[in-house]
Amino acid sequence: MDFNQSIQGFLNANVWWILILALWSIAWKGVALWKAARGGDKVWFVVLLILNTVGILEILYIFYFSKQSTKAKA
After folding, report:
1. Rounded to 5 degrees, what are φ and ψ at 51?
2. Whole-prediction pTM
3. 27 partner at 20 to 30 Å CA-CA among 8, 17, 37, 52?
4. d(CA 38, CA 30)
5. Nearest to 41 by CA among 18, 17, 72
6. Burial of 19 by CB count in 10 Å (0-12 exposed, 13-18 middle, 19+ buried)?
7. In the 3-class helix/strand/coil scheme, how is the chain assigned residue by residue?
């Protein structure tokens, strides 16, 4: 079995998990990017746009870091 066949087998066996993971990541990334843009956090916007952390960094930004930056601006 060569590499292409093993990758193809993995993708075929896990297509639903991959789709769920992609939708999860896109949803969190969209919310985090929106909050960063609305809050004027340019550095966070670029970091969130470039890095793909399957929603982990995005969730941290939404619930922790964006609240800190909002308090600092007030």
Report:
1. -80, 140
2. 0.74
3. 8
4. 12
5. 72
6. exposed
7. CCHHHHHHHHHHHCHHHHHHHHHHHHHHHHHHHHHHHHHCCHHHHHHHHHCCCCCHHHHHHHHHHHHHHHHHHC
Q: Which residue has the tokens 């308090």?
A: 71
pLDDT tens column, 17-41: 999 999 999 999 999 999 999 999 9
Residue 68 CB-half CA count within 13 A: 6
Q: Burial code of 34-61, b = ≥16 C-beta within 10 A, e = fewer?
A: ebbeebebeebbeebeeeeeebebbeeb
Kindly provide the residue ranges of all beta strands, DSSP E only, lying in the chain, ordered along the sequence: none
